[in-house]
Design goal:
The protein is α+β, with helices and mostly antiparallel strands. 25% of the residues lie in helices and 28% in strands.
Length: 337
């Protein structure tokens, strides 16, 4: 295990923010994690566990230790006629996992195609897209307790999943490092094409009897048409959560704004944050190198050399604008450091 000083983080966050960490180390196996734990100064001091850097905004240099998870590997640990149980190490890239499962004919993750990041960070915010959330397939996970130095197993219920949240983002925040995730995948896939744009894209593809490979391709096409490639334009995907409102509040908004976009959920009506931001006039906005994507208002972008503070200031102005016009508060989906 090596620890470097004043380590650049620009290539390690998809926003491409030019910032540095006081100290930096990479963990390639559990032995390295145990060795890091033995160095009590690391976990007792300021530290950050970094995965793919795809859901984070650095607003300043990080005055502490950045720990990057590099665990790799996946293994079928059980299977039956209906399901395959796949254990995946935290450092695996998420979309590589989805592509692998689709190539094997195992269903459940295809709607989550092309989401950036690593497997280990995916349960923290319960990633989701196109009618599917991570919790639909997660059986359990293993997490390293930074206080005790022991690995603990969390069942699905232990994770306390909610909309873009979990135990690891709330009560368990900063207490654990997820080291592996076990998924229950369908041996005989049941497709989820209820989300309107997926069905529309499949029609464009002239696919009448889709497979999970077709669904993955449709989702990839949709995401590529709407979301910028971080390799070409710095961003962290959706910057804000889609806000949940009561039926009563939704009806009031619907009366005033008949074209408002929303989706029913068990917790209430989920408003499309991108629609709210666009209606508030922010789509395509740019000040310096900080801006709003011209195809999807939910995505804030770094056109080159924007600082984290400039991106954050833009986000604050957008939130204030949407709150003033619609009375709806927006919450960041991106972790702000």
């Amino acid at each position: 295990m090596q620890i470097s000083e004043n380590h650049p983080l620009k290539s390690l966050n998809t926003f491409g923010i030019d910032t540095h960490a006081s100290y930096y180390t990479e963990l390639h196996d559990r032995e390295a994690l145990q060795a890091l734990h033995a160095d009590t100064s690391v976990f007792r001091g300021k530290h950050l566990v970094l995965g793919g850097g795809s859901n984070i905004l650095f607003s300043r240099d990080f005055n502490g230790t950045v720990i990057r998870m590099m665990f790799g590997g996946k293994e079928v640990i059980d299977r039956n006629e209906s399901h395959v149980f796949l254990q995946v190490q935290a450092g695996e890239h998420w979309d590589d996992l989805v592509a692998y499962c689709v190539s094997k004919g195992w269903g459940g993750l295809e709607n989550l195609s092309l989401i950036p990041g690593q497997v280990g960070s995916s349960p923290i915010q319960n990633i989701g897209a196109y009618g599917v959330e991570l919790e639909n397939t997660l059986v359990s996970l293993e997490a390293f307790n930074k206080k005790t130095g022991k690995t603990e197993t969390f069942t699905h219920d232990d994770c306390q999943f909610g909309y873009r949240t979990s135990f690891f983002k709330s009560n368990g925040n900063n207490q654990y490092i997820i080291t592996s995730v076990t998924f229950r995948l369908d041996a005989h896939p049941k497709l989820n094409t209820r989300y309107g744009s997926v069905a529309e894209e499949l029609n464009k593809m002239r696919v009448s009897s889709p497979t999970i490979a077709d669904v993955r391709e449709a989702v990839c096409r949709i995401r590529r048409s709407k979301l910028p490639d971080p390799e070409k334009l710095g961003n962290a995907g959706s910057f804000f959560k889609n806000p949940l409102v009561s039926e009563k509040d939704y009806r009031a908004l619907k009366n005033e704004y008949p074209q408002i976009v929303a989706y029913p959920t068990a917790q209430g009506m989920k408003l499309a944050a991108g629609w709210l931001i666009e209606q508030a006039g922010w789509k395509g906005y740019r000040k310096g190198d900080a801006g709003v994507h011209d195809k999807q208002a939910l995505v804030l972008v770094n056109h080159g050399n924007a600082s984290g503070k400039e991106i954050l200031n833009l986000a604050d102005h957008i939130r204030a604008s949407v709150k003033q016009r619609f009375g709806v508060p927006l919450q960041p989906e991106v972790n702000i450091i």
